[in-house]
Amino acid sequence: MPRLNLRAVSKRFHDFQALDTVSLDIPDGAFLALLGPSGCGKTTLLRLIAGLEVPDQGEICLDEQVVAGKMAFVPPEKRRVGMVFQSYALWPTMSVRGNIEFGLKISRLTAKERAARIDEVLEVVGLRGLGDRRPHELSGGQRQRVALARSLATRPKLILLDEPLANLDAHLREAMLAEFRRIHSLTGATFVFVTHDQDEAMAVATHVAVMDRGRLQQVGTPEALYRQPASPFVARFIGRGRTLPVRVLKSESGRTRVMLGQQLLDMPGHAEVGHGWLCFHASDLQRVAEGGELKTELVGQVFQNGAFLSHCIPTEIDGDVVSLPLAERLLPGTPIELVLRSGWVIGDGHSSADAQVTRRAQTA
Ligand SMILES: Nc1ncnc2c1ncn2[C@@H]1O[C@H](COP(=O)(O)OP(=O)(O)OP(=O)(O)O)[C@@H](O)[C@H]1O
Ligand SMILES: [Mg+2]
After folding, report:
1. Which mutation among 9, 11, 14, 16 tests ligand 1's pocket best, with the greatest number of atoms within 8 A of CB?
2. Which residue numbers delimit the ABC transporter domain (predicted)?
3. Residues, Cβ < 5 Å to ion ligand 2
């Protein structure tokens, strides 16, 4: 059964720590989206899994076989891992069939078996009949499908996709995403998908992993990352979330009592008594005429998705701008009182976030 485990994997380039003790368990058949700011180590992680880089420390296991570690290193061609790059990397002078066959040459298949395999993957990616075209005779989306077909042809256990949709326009990206989802369920392979686009990730992924500066911040379902972020970084990163500083008075059985400025609130979450963060999204905020828990002042509006996305700065606490859609256009400086319909409280220390990462990774 295809299964990927990373145990405390670290990678350094000269004096730069690109990956720092990353541990991750990816279950069979998962579709994992890997998210994080530019330079956080996503491509490096994929290259380590594929065998294109060697970890300095830690261990990588595929199907319970150690493929990289202190005592072992299995070369890329023996890992049954397919990698699809942003740039497609197709051979321009070869036909579609030729490009797909290229990856099969090192297999022990006969010419007839190779031809059958090529027909099979062209069918899967919806390119039947286009096998004799050259890459320049294809659209961007079709080229991306050829790149995917090429990696599917070797029947990999695991497919790594490094921003595969970055070169496509919004419309095509959406269509290709639906295709990836279809191909994922058809092949049963495990997919690891790097993207800058969160909406994209949330739409297709069964699991989402968030990285920051070489460290894994949290792994979980899209809903868990959205509703129960393990750290302020994840809270702010996922779904344009916001955090406000709170004082945690009590935390018991998944409920917390916190002070937001002078307001006492009961919210779901886990945190040690002391300083903490209330995490929420625009959809958790509601404007009220008076008696709001969060008093703010409007600083600006933009018309978006049929409403005025309104940016408001808290006036009675020291916190960042919060944003919510309002139906009307208002003047900057208008007082806006808000209630929080929901939220999630976390502690201040990184230790609790890390503990949660480990727990989630174990239960993923
Ligand atoms: N071969 C290398 N030599 C030196 N530094 C490297 C090398 N490869 C990557 N790095 C550095 O390691 C860090 C992580 O790079 P990586 O390519 O994994 O980031 P990324 O998360 O994929 O970013 P992006 O979203 O921009 O593609 C970066 O700071 C990068 O400059
Ligand atoms: Mg990258």
Report:
1. 16
2. 4-238
3. 43
CA angle 252, 255, 261 (to 5 degrees): 110
Residue 361 lies in a domain: no
State the residue range of the domain holding 114: 4-227
Please tell me the number of the ligand nearest to residue 45's CA. Answer: 1
- Is 214 within 8 Å of 19 (Cβ atoms)? yes
Asked if residue 322 lies in contact with residue 242, where contact means CB atoms within 8 angstroms, the answer is yes
Say whether both 35 and 170 belong to one domain: yes
pLDDT tens per residue across span 224-251:
999 999 999 999 999 999 999 999 999 9
Residue 122 lies in a domain: yes
Dihedral sign of CA atoms 28, 34, 39, 40 in order? negative
The whole-number pLDDT of residue 173 equals: 78
Q: Is residue 241 within 8 Å of residue 279, measured between CB atoms?
A: yes
Work out how many domains the chain is built from and give that number.
2
Write out pLDDT tens, residues 76-131: 988 889 888 877 788 999 999 999 998 787 778 899 999 999 998 898 888 889 99
Establish if 325 belongs to a structural domain.
Answer: yes
Q: What digits encode the pLDDT tens for the residues 129-186?
A: 999 999 999 988 888 889 888 888 888 889 999 988 877 777 777 877 887 888 888 8
Looking at the DSSP bridge assignments, the partners of residue 259 are 247, 264
Q: Is the CB of 16 under 6 A from ligand 1?
A: yes
- Residue 2 confidence (pLDDT): 54
* Residues 166 and 303 reside in one and the same domain: no
Q: Is 214 in the pocket of ligand 1 (CB under 6 A)?
A: no
